[in-house]
Write a structure and sequence with these properties.
By secondary structure, the protein is of the alpha+beta class. 39% of the residues lie in helices and 27% in strands. This is Gamma-aminobutyric acid receptor subunit beta.
Length: 402
C-alpha cells in the first residue's frame, strides 16, 4: 500500500510534466497520438490520367515554336458559322457580323499513347495560353471583341493523335467597299478577310475546311438586304514582309427596294402630283398658287436632304440623285409656270391696251378667252410632268440592267 508521501510525490510529478508540455507550445494532440485520415478513394482514375497526360505534354513543350518548326509548312484549316448580321452602314462603308471561327491543325507534340483510355480532351479556352495557337486576324477589321458571357467564349479540343480544334465567338465590324451608283437598286459584295499576321506561306498554309466551310448564311437576316449567295476564296497577298495566305468569304447582297418605295419614291410621286393642282387654280389666286408651289419645292428639298444624309459624300452621281433632281425640276417648273402665266396674261393685256387695237375685250371673261394661256400651258406641262418621272425610272432601270 502506497503511503501518503509517495502518493503526493507521484501526483506532483505528473502535474509538473503536463504543465511543462503546454508551456512549451504543445497541445493535447501532441500528447495524444491521432491516427491519419484514410485517403479519398472516390476520385475517378480518369482525372488522374488526364492530369498526368497534360503534365507530361507540357513538361518539355515550347510555346514559342510552331508545330513542325524547321520542316514543311503547317496546314491550318478553318470554318465559319454565321450567327447574325447586325448592321450595314453605307455612310461608314462597313457592316457588323457575329460569327463562330473554328481553326484546325495538328501538333504532334500534344499527342499521347493511343492505348490510353482517353481519346480526346475538351479544355477551357484559357488552356490555349499554354500551347501554340495561330496568330490569325481579320484583315478588313475595324473593331472586334470576344464575347465573355458567362465565360470567355473560347474552346480548345485536343485528340490523342495531336489534332487540335480551336474555336471562338466574336463580333466584328468589317469594312465593305460599296459601289452606290445604282442605289437603291444596287447589289453589294461584302467580305470577311482572314489572314495570318506573322507566318508566311512557307510556314503556315491556310485552307477552307471544305465542304463544311460556311454555315448559317441561309438563316441570317440582313436589314434592307437579301443574301443571294456566298463564295469562299483563297489568295496570296504580298507585302514588304513577305507573302501571306488569305482566306476570303464573300457575301453577295441585294438591296431590298421596298423601304425606299415607301420612304422616297412614293412621297416624291405624290409631291409632284400635288404640284399639278396649281394648274386648276385661278391664276388670279396668287396666294394659293404661290403657297402651294413653294410648299412642294420645300418638301422635295427636305426629302432630298434626308436621302443625302443617309449616304456617304461621294463624287459620282447615284440613280436616286437623278430621280430626286427630276422630281425637283418638275415641282420647281410648276412654280415657274404660274409666273409665266401671270406674266403672259398681264403683259398681253398691257401690250394690247398700249397698242390701242380695236376690239380688245374690256371685261374679265373675254380677256381670259382672248389670252387663253391657262388652256395650253397646263395641258402640255402636265403631260410632260407625268411622262418624265416614269421615263427617268425606266432609263435608270435599263442602265442598271445593262
Amino acid at each position: 500500500m502506497t503511503s501518503l508521501p509517495q502518493y503526493v510525490f507521484w501526483t506532483s510529478l505528473t502535474s509538473l510534466l503536463f504543465a511543462t508540455t503546454f508551456t512549451a507550445g504543445g497541445s493535447l494532440n501532441d500528447v495524444i497520438s491521432v491516427a491519419p485520415a484514410a485517403p479519398n478513394t472516390s476520385r475517378p482514375s480518369s482525372y488522374t490520367n488526364a492530369s498526368t497526360i497534360l503534365a507530361d505534354l507540357l513538361s518539355d513543350y515550347d510555346i514559342r515554336l510552331r508545330p513542325g518548326f524547321g520542316g514543311d509548312a503547317l496546314l491550318l484549316t478553318m470554318d465559319v458559322i454565321i450567327a447574325s448580321f447586325d448592321a450595314i452602314s453605307e455612310v461608314d462603308m462597313d457592316y457588323t457580323l457575329t460569327m463562330y471561327l473554328h481553326q484546325y491543325w495538328t501538333d504532334e507534340r500534344l499527342s499521347w499513347s493511343p492505348d490510353s483510355p482517353i481519346d480526346e480532351m475538351t479544355l477551357s479556352g484559357e488552356f490555349s495560353q499554354n500551347i501554340w495557337v495561330p496568330d490569325t486576324f481579320l484583315a478588313n477589321d475595324k473593331h472586334s471583341f470576344l464575347h465573355e458571357v458567362t465565360e470567355r467564349n473560347k474552346m480548345l479540343r485536343i485528340g490523342s493523335d495531336g489534332k487540335i480544334a480551336y474555336g471562338m465567338r466574336l463580333t466584328s465590324t468589317l469594312s465593305c467597299s460599296m459601289n452606290l451608283r445604282n442605289f437603291p437598286l444596287d447589289a453589294q459584295n461584302c467580305t470577311v478577310e482572314i489572314e495570318s499576321y506573322g507566318y508566311t506561306t512557307s510556314e503556315v498554309l491556310m485552307k477552307w475546311n471544305h465542304p463544311l466551310a460556311v454555315h448559317g448564311v441561309e438563316q441570317a437576316d440582313v436589314p434592307q438586304f437579301t443574301i443571294t449567295g456566298y463564295q469562299t476564296e483563297d489568295s496570296i497577298v504580298s507585302t514588304a514582309t513577305g507573302s501571306y495566305q488569305r482566306l476570303s468569304l464573300v457575301f453577295q447582297l441585294q438591296r431590298s427596294v421596298g423601304y425606299f418605295i415607301f420612304q422616297t419614291y412614293l412621297p416624291c410621286v405624290l409631291i409632284v402630283m400635288l404640284s399639278w393642282v396649281s394648274f386648276w387654280i385661278n391664276h388670279e389666286a396668287t396666294s394659293a398658287r404661290v403657297a402651294l408651289g413653294i410648299t412642294t419645292v420645300l418638301t422635295m428639298t427636305t426629302i432630298s436632304t434626308g436621302v443625302r444624309q443617309s449616304l456617304p459624300r461621294i463624287s459620282y452621281v447615284k440613280s436616286i440623285d437623278i430621280y430626286l433632281v427630276m422630281c425637283f425640276v418638275f415641282v420647281f417648273a410648276a412654280l415657274l409656270e404660274y409666273a409665266a402665266v401671270n406674266y403672259s396674261y398681264w403683259g398681253s393685256e398691257r401690250r394690247q391696251r398700249k397698242s390701242g387695237e380695236e376690239g380688245w375685250p374690256v371685261n374679265k371673261e373675254d380677256r381670259e378667252s382672248a389670252v387663253n394661256v391657262q388652256k395650253w400651258v397646263p395641258s402640255g406641262f402636265m403631260d410632260v410632268s407625268f411622262v418624265l418621272p416614269v421615263a427617268s425610272v425606266a432609263i435608270v432601270k435599263r442602265f442598271i440592267d445593262d
